[in-house]
Give the backbone structure.
Amino acid sequence: MSITLHKGDLPADIDFGTSVAVDSETLGLQIPRDKLCLVQLSAGDGNAHIVQLDRARYDAPNLRALIANPDVTKIFHYARFDVAVMQQYLGVVTTPIYCTKIASKLVRTYTDRHGLKDLCRELAGVEISKQQQSSDWGAETLSEAQLSYAASDVLHLHKLKTVLDGMLEREGRMEYAKACFAFLPVRASLDLAGWPDEDIFSH
């Protein structure tokens, strides 16, 4: 495994192929208040690229182009948050999307444990640590522990997608998943527009 830190933007010559695992780190969970600090990416090859963003400008055209590229599927765990935060700070609509949390909720109905750590343990046979989850991602210099934690959030998403795809096909729920994934940019826009908690489909 290798971890490469990029300051400000992603280099233009990196090819992630047709699918890239994506995650983000912010200063907190309130999107308008807590700024986007990092975006982590992996092609599923055991290597992670971490973009440490300039929070004064968010001038990252190469990263924006990748996130919006219709020919590259972006694999997230809990895409709703990451898509909203990148829409807020990078000004880009993410497409197309695959969310391992949504896929898990559609097929792992035998459990209520749909966190990334749980999925990695059961479906990939990997133990990941969440020790650095509450961390100062706005620090100018990130520790090795922070970088390792950030990388771990994207290194296994391709494997999880493969296993979950098999389960979705087996249970006949792939079309539900695709419809949910396609709706995620709208769900993120609703979150940003002031409907984060209200179920607009309820009576």
Summary: The two ends are 50 Å apart (CA to CA). The mean pLDDT is 95. DSSP finds seven helices and six strands in the chain. The chain has one domain: 2-135+142-193.
